[in-house]
Prior knowledge:
This protein is an alpha/beta fold. 30% of the residues lie in helices and 18% in strands. The protein folds into three domains: 20-327, Aconitase, domain 3, CATH 3.30.499; 334-507, Aconitase, domain 3; 564-763, Aconitase, domain 4 (Alpha-Beta Barrel). It is found in: Mitochondrion.
Amino acid sequence: MLRARLAAKKCSKAASSVPMSRFDDAPVNYEGMAKNIDIVKGRLNRPLTLSEKVVYGHLDNAAEADIRRGDSYLNLRPDRVAMQDATAQMAMLQFISSGMPRVAVPSTIHADHLIAAENGSVADLKVANTLNREVYDFLGSAGKKYGVGFWEAGSGIIHQIVLENYAFPGVMLIGTDSHTPNGGGLGGCCVGVGGADAVDVMAGIPWELKCPKVIGVELTGKLSGWTSPKDVILKVADILTVKGGTGAIVEYFGPGVESMSCTGMATICNMGAEIGATTSMFPYNHRMRSYLDSTGRSAIGDLADANQGGLLNADAGAEYDQHIHINLDELRPGINGPFTPDLYHLASEVGETARKQDWPVEVKYGLIGSCTNSSYEDMGRAASLAKQIADRGMTCKAGFSISPGSEQVRATIERDGYTKIFESVGGVVMSNSCGPCIGQWNRKDTEKGEKNSIVTSFNRNFTGRNDANPMTHGFVASPELATVYAITGTLDFDPEVDELTAPDGSKFKLETPYGDELPSQGWEAGQNYYTHPPAEGAGEVVVDPESARLQLLTPFNAWDGKNLENAEILIKVKGKCTTDHISAAGPWLKFRGHLDNISNNFLITGLNSENEEMNNVCNWTTGERGGVPDIARQYKAAGVPWVVVGDDNYGEGSSREHAALEPRHLGGRAIIVKSFARIHETNLKKQGMLPLTFADPADYDKIRPDDKVTLTGVTELAPFSQVTCTVTHNDGSSDSFPLNHTFNDLQINWFKNGSALNYMKSQM
């Protein structure tokens, strides 16, 4: 049996080796939740979904809150904050600027984004610690001074660390990363936000969220064979598309839930970010209890058991805004891509589709890991496949990269023999970090511009996302399938049907993958990379004024009280424009703490409708051409206001608020699009920008790149009001049309004061 062949070596360490200080500073407050829920039920007089219970259970004022799904705004009190290092820099710089002496809720920083994958874990971590020392020292010292825990480089990916230590059933946690919903696999309401939202919560201010709609996904049947939890979210992405979950929480329920592990449910919630969902959640069950026990949190499991019926599951008869049914008995292995995470194919058909679409059928690389699929179970299932070819003296035909989710996972899979199996077939185990998933990949096997295909177990596959090569066709699938494609080197292989040829000429089919849900011998803790903050602030935080990587913030100017007149169009973007297009990651990550330097990547990969080129726009006041940030700086220096015009679901993807900070810093006034992704629209509001949408999306076509834009109605900005856009064309003619916004009264104060941070400081 495969599971016997994968038996682990003996180990003396167990779950008790995980120090409680990592997660004992945010008490489980089921009593407070229950009181709020009783108040809300008395007011609404209807059954509540699970997500409603957790969200409304965290209301700042349940008795007076305006609760209308999809319409009203809620003031909430999250239990804790988590920040990854690339976004934590700007979040902590804003917190420092706020003047607050210490965070008001338990908070942590996780060093996971700044480590580039190239030569393997040890070498890459050493390089990262050298290159990023200034940033790590800043984050560590800020943590000590302001009361924030710090997980150093090597500890693992933020979402895996949160799942292992901080998430629990019913928690409300916000994180400065769009894949924070990973914690929904443990029954938490975990939401990705921008850094300014995190600052509000850390400062003790209620967090504002538009009351989410609820999409119910009913799972029946049972996962089996080659089908995995990843296939569930790949199918949901096919159904809802990249914007179908916007403004909603996706709530999974039904008997099919019982066939999934806790980490499998986390995978589904994690990739829910790719459908625009506010977050995703699963009801509390015995699989979550097993995970809590395994990770040293049995006391929380006891509390959850006692509150399972009332708080941690939906009420009978609860209604959803949309209902989706997936029969797991009928679900087949899927693979999504390229270039968008909602383009669904059956794994059995993707090879044929690739040939028809002229996509490269040859697979150059298979990559497993990332925050979406880097659990012990994921690694075990992939290793069970790798061992089958290792036993026959075979190696992978494509490159094969493995990124463990945490130091705990890494140490445990090394102890249990998985690492040796991966290495025996040509795999390279990278550091416990995001790596290639976010573009931190020093890839050597292809040249930029070379057309090729890769298959990953990641969550996103936007153009150039993983390796900065716009011709890399990225597909996302389960770790099992990514491993299969690394083994075979081709998309034209169906593991349920096709055979491999061993070196001796014998034919064989891969046996169904298998992996233990949790390590039978407990967790190997590995090296401790965590520093708990002192009870009182200690030390100083120093930012070198000459630094190229860190820069203290200067407050943005308040609104001038006038309508916007004769603004230039910096760029009219055509087609998909994600936060990767607006503020690229990869090599730019090193500037995430320096607003002026990071602004040099503003919209450099957005497609200009004028010439269908990237980073080539015109300064319409001088006739000079240049890169997008260069022309923006010219306009700013000359005192010329400018706007950006965009397409549908503008700003989808990451939570990075740099995509909102950069246009504000460079002198932008408004972003006018067909529709926004949730987090990006909020981030723009937080920084004093005007995010506006066409009342009629067809009006996008009335705008020419060289038009002058006037916005009237800004002086009368109010909830549900409209702004009139008048575009004056080069020939003297003009068009006028209405624009919508979603500002409420509080957010209008952000705009008038120049930013949410400015307004917060004005109220102190």
